[in-house]
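INFO batch 0412 | record 1 of 1 | parsing
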Amino acid sequence: MPDVRPALKGPGYFCEAPLGLTALSKGKIMPYWRLFYHIVWATKNREPIIDQEWEDSLYKVMATKAKSLEATVHIIGGIEDHVHVVVSVPPRIALTSFIGQLKGSSSHFVNHSLTLSHEFGWQAEYGVVTFGHKQLQWVIQYVRNQRAHHQKSEVVPLLEQFQ
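INFO prediction complete | emitting tokens
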């Protein structure tokens, strides 16, 4: 299946992997699946500590971890106090485990690879909603435009809820 998404480049998000990638296309036998998740979680105490200087590196660490779990990352983005992940996760992986591994690897990266004046962490809570392929482009654009949505107070409550 060709990738029909527009190229998404710029600060504050990371997008990779063509649509339709499954474990079968990687040479492994697995039933057909197409699952789309929007996941959101916040920094500990919702502190605005994600700095634009290193947020792309944070998103790349998260995307690398997701790929190692054979997930397809559609986009990762956010603002100073929370992140959004739009992803397709193979059904053999429990979603709570997937989210925990992304949160763990990303906080480890920040605490061990960056020099911050304080310890970095995520809140335990998260929000997740599923959606269909027809909504994928809309959800990607929503995450892509996080800063503008928050500056204009034009957020979608369902996609911002994490507790």
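INFO post-check: Strands lie at 13-14, 36-42, 72-79, 82-88, 127-131.
INFO record closed
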